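Quick one, probably user error.
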């Protein structure tokens, strides 16, 4: 290495001085990533074509060579890095949650690579070098607070924020919330249905804040199926708020988001190359009326009907969210407590007849015991 491409202002030696071969790789769908340290000492795993990586590359170049690179130099470095990614081993990239050696790893989303390791009967906060998380959901992933435990009355506290009164609905909601952490299973779509003033959007925000917080918590519903699939591929948990209808083809995409699917589209400025992505995760939908009409989607959904909140029970929004943010680390810790306990008894859960979404069903039984 060290030669320059014809007409190039940078050499492959420049690339060598910034990255080692082990730092460049492609993920399971062929997208190129760099796993490197930023100039402040934080670890970054970023897609090479993204804006964040361009900024990182500029910072690294300035620190290494003492000058600002030209825009053409950054473009040529990206080109070279992409070429080296073709001959690098592939790594599986995860969104928020992963499973490895019988344990669940949940990313807190910070620049230090902090994770929650959940094992049968216990959990702890730490780091791992064996599992890789992508930090790029649509809307910008936010950092989860460090979870804490120690409060045994948190189920009652959770439903101070979630407008579900029936004990059966509460238990089912808890099972859904905890299993959102479980990777590699089909998660039913969560349908929050209620009239004005039933706090369905607030409930959806609570779920998003506890499972997969992002700069944009409530998403609009895109018209194009490919855009819907891409949103689901960029979020571990996607929340679509205040839907009026779901078309048949949109329903099909949501079904694939539940059980797992893949789509592809042509790369920009290319006639020959496709960009492929897979998607499977959690979906929350709020609506005034039941908008999931197709039998396949209904069969993959949990329906929660939310009553209107009386004027006597209504809270000021500012104090509601202040109290939730104060309780959020404890609620997270409680969810991990519930999940660790369920993992401990999962081997003993025996079910004679399994319904659709059988893994969720078994986890729900373990959580409710």
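Nope, works fine. Designed sequence:
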């Amino acid at each position: 290495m060290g030669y320059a491409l014809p007409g190039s202002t940078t050499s492959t030696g420049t690339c060598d001085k910034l990255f080692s071969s082990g730092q460049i790789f492609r993920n399971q769908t062929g997208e190129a990533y760099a796993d490197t340290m930023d100039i402040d000492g934080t670890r970054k795993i970023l897609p090479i074509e993204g804006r964040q990586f361009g900024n990182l590359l500029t910072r690294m170049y300035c620190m290494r060579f003492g000058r600002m690179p030209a825009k053409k130099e950054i473009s040529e470095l990206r080109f070279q890095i992409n070429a080296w990614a073709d001959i690098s081993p592939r790594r599986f990239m995860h969104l928020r949650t992963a499973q490895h050696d019988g344990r669940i790893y949940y990313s807190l989303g910070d620049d230090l690579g902090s994770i929650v390791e959940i094992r049968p009967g216990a959990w702890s906060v730490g780091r791992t070098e064996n599992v890789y998380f992508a930090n790029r959901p649509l809307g910008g992933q936010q950092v989860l607070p460090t979870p804490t435990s120690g409060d045994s009355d948190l189920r009652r506290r959770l439903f101070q924020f979630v407008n579900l009164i029936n004990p059966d609905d509460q238990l089912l909601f808890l099972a859904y919330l905890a299993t959102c952490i479980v990777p590699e299973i089909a998660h039913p779509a969560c349908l929050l249905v209620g009239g004005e003033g039933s706090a369905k959007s607030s409930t959806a925000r609570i779920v998003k804040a506890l499972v997969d917080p992002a700069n944009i918590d409530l998403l609009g519903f895109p018209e194009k199926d490919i855009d819907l699939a891409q949103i689901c591929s960029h979020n571990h948990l996607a929340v679509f708020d205040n839907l009026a209808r779901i078309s048949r083809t949109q329903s099909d995409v949501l079904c694939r988001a539940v059980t797992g699917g893949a789509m592809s589209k042509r790369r920009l400025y290319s006639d020959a190359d496709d960009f492929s992505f897979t998607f499977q995760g959690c979906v929350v939908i709020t609506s005034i009326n039941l908008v999931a009409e197709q039998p396949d989607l209904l069969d993959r959904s949990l329906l929660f009907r939310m009553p209107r909140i009386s004027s006597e029970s209504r809270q000021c929004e500012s104090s509601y969210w202040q109290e939730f943010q104060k309780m959020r680390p404890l609620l997270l810790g409680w969810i991990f407590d519930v999940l660790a306990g369920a993992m401990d008894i999962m081997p003993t859960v025996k079910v004679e007849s399994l319904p659709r979404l059988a893994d969720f069903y078994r986890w729900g039984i373990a959580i409710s015991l």
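The CA atoms of residues 85 and 345 lie 43 Å apart.
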